[in-house]
Predict the 3D structure of the following.
Amino acid sequence: MARLTALFALLVASPALGTPFEGLYRPNYDFASSWDCATVGMEGGAVAVEGDVLHGVGNACQLTDPVEVRGMNAVLYDAICTGEGDAYSERVLLMSHDFGIYVLRDGLVLDWLRCEE
């Protein structure tokens, strides 16, 4: 019983494990080559997945309830977001590709390229 209690305490005290999509990204558009990968979340800056938080331009989403998509390198999340003074929730699918990730939201697909380190 003591081992189980210690294991539970360790899990509760541990920080979020993050996602397999951790990193800094820039949009894959012609004009995006001038984006500053050193600045996160601002116009002209990088977007990021840090831990279980998806940082966009002017918004951030807590990613919860991950569901792996069988046969694909993708995970579907419930996202609890804040941006421009509003709170909202949505479903977000993140899927890896050779140079970054795709971010799929209802009616929207974004292609983000990994920022070079």
The mean pLDDT is 81. The first strand starts at residue 23 and ends at 27. The two ends are 46 Å apart (CA to CA). Residues 17-114 form one domain.
